[in-house]
Amino acid sequence: MSRIDSVARAVRRLVRQEKSDDWAVRLLPRLVLGLAGAYTLFILASSSMSSFITICALLVLGLLVFLLRRRGQLLLALGSTVLTAAFAGYLAAVADIARGIPAGWAGGQAVFGHWALAGMALLGTWVVKEHPGRRGLTVVLADVVLLVAAGIGTVAPPVAVPLGFVGIVAVLMFRGGGGAAVGRFVRRLARRPAPDTKANSKRV
């Protein structure tokens, strides 16, 4: 009887939705909105294969954003990498079409070259154990350089991938501590005292 009474009390609390009952006030709207959202997603996903793939991709993206909500730099880097891969693939496909090569947005050597460079920028930033700056910003800068190289590739396709590679390596080097090392070396040279020419002339 105790179990039946507890279930009955829970049902009454849920149905009555008293203002002083926080459990029912919070649970009922979430339950209704959750069921409505799940039903809507099910109807949209069952309409066609493309809709199903889109819904699955959005769910995975939402889950990824939820899991990385406290790691802003990694979330920024992943978002920048995905957008860069999409735009770079589009620019590479435009370059192929301009040269008379029938290729889609996911075809051609240049497309995969740009995707590999975007992945290199993402991995190269997180390989450094002690990064002096923000890693997500480093990936964004490298992706901007890659997009500029892809844009140049629409005019001069052979130089797109090598130019993007050199630009990404330069960004990773300077943002990963190489720029600070060069600055320290230059300051050390500037602080070094100049040789005494008078003393050298007296010795001669």
| Low-confidence parts | none
Query: What is the helix content?
Result: over 70%
Give helix and strand order, one letter per element, not per position: HHHHHHHH
Beta-strand content bin: under 5%
Overall outline: flat
> If you compute it from the alpha carbons, what radius of gyration comes out, rounded to the nearest whole angstrom?
29 Å
- Structural class, from secondary structure content? mainly alpha
Give the overall pLDDT as a whole number: 76
Number of strands: 0
Please work out how many helical segments DSSP would assign: 8
Distance between the termini: 113 Å
Largest sheet: none
Topology overview:
Layout: H1 2-16, H2 22-45, H3 49-67, H4 72-98, H5 109-127, H6 135-153, H7 160-191, H8 197-203
Helix pairs in contact: 1-2, 4-5, 4-6, 5-6, 5-7, 6-7
Describe what you observe in this structure.
This protein has 204 residues and is an all-alpha fold. 79% of the residues lie in helices and 0% in strands. The protein contains 8 helices and no strands. Helix 1 crosses helix 2 (22-45) and helix 6 crosses helix 7 (160-191). The chain is flat, with a radius of gyration of 29 Å. The chain starts with a helix and ends with a helix.
Summarize the structure.
The protein is mostly helical and 204 residues long. It has eight helices and no strands.
Based on the model shown, name its key terms.
single chain; 204 residues; mainly alpha; 8 helices
